[in-house]
Amino acid sequence: xxxxxxxxxxxxxxxxxxxxxxxxxxxxxxxxxxxxxxxxxxxxxxxxxxxxxxxxxxxxxxxxxxxxxxxxxxxxxxxxxxxxxxxxxxxxxxxxxxxxxxxxxxxxxxxxxxxxxxxxxxxxxxxxxxxxxxxxxxxxxxxxxxxxxxxxxxxxxxxxxxxxxxxxxxxxxxxxxxxxxxxxxxxxxxxxxxxxxxxxxxxxxxxxxxxxxxxxxxxxxxxxxxxxxxxxxxxxxxxxxxxxxxxxxxxxxxxxxxxxxxxxxxxxxxxxxxxxxxxxxxxxxxxxxxxxxxxxxxxxxxxxx
Amino acid sequence: xxxxxxxxxxxxxxxxxxxxxxxxxxxxxxxxxxxxxxxxxxxxxxxxxxxxxxxxxxxxxxxxxxxxxxxxxxxxxxxxxxxxxxxxxxxxxxxxxxxxxxxxxxxxxxxxxxxxxxxxxxxxxxxxxxxxxxxxxxxxxxxxxxxxxxxxxxxxxxxxxxxxxxxxxxxxxxxxxxxxxxxxxxxx
Lengths: 305, 188
Fold this sequence. Notes:
The complex is a heterodimer. By secondary structure, chain A is an alpha/beta fold. Chain A contains 14 helices and eight strands.
């Protein structure tokens, strides 16, 4: 199995541990990742308010590169904003003749054109639908021993396009966590917005979302994320979050997976997580949880199905 | 009754175009308010999303631009997902931000400072360089106290090894693309 890999800017910067752990997990699963040569920024959520054409041209440039240099490969984009921006080109530009023409006219300035042949994939989609939970579970060598993990999906991999999960009640990360020997923390905040870049532009507003999410994570040993901005908002502002914002470690799903596969802490850059303190580090090392399955949520789940 | 009359002001062609397109896209809004009920940031808006779509339908440009509502959108797409008419509401919020930028008031510049600094950084480096993005943002925001707010976080990020010296190896890579898009947008 082979994918074109679009790490995106954040994964080269403050979210380096996401990049490293995605590569480690994929390597263990026998999946080859080929980085798109000379990729550039997708525009994140900043291009749309500035220029509509740029909002499409920036991600399209990367798809054009993948189409040209890595023909036939699906693109894996781990970051939520990158994933949505790339996917948006396929959904909004391809098939809209006038807009497609304009985007390609712009891309011509860098000697590129995009035909619309590249499929954009999220890592959860690949784990569940391409590799399969059985194969993923088969690699577990040091399972998470009942660690209670709150699966946090965020927004842009679920909405607006319904691709691989239910945007109202997502389940793919829950199933991956279960395969790792963890116990998904029952909550309804998995698809709630973290505030995204509002945390920079209007932090007093975004803080409400962060507080609501952290409060609902009470009882969980950790929150698992699949987006650098969600990760940053949930871990960096725990200090500032008012009452209810108790301490909870926030880790990338792929970090937890790599640990469950038996990789050592340095291999997933656990040092770079700002929400891990000494006791949570020790807990992770000794797999200290072994929570007895709590009666209530289990029962509710059985009744619900 | 003390209200000053909204200025009889004819919008520039670019504003006109954005507003006309929006009116077309939002014409089917039936004012059910599902968007308002779904918005995680609604509490911070002065005009609810539902009211905003009505103002767009009526072309109430001045009232629209007075509002802070669209600056509160964090692009979570919950309204878009739930809209029973299938309207692209998050996209509309993005268009309203662009509309506001056509009249570059002081308020708009402050609200848009992060997006502008981000795009400047992309244009310069090809890939966003976080350690030069934030100073760029501080400059555009023109709030001398802002860097101080970020100082503790900056220190924690530095300790965790999350800050990197800007990588200049792709400088100018997107220059031609940015220039071309500007040229195309001026023509249209």
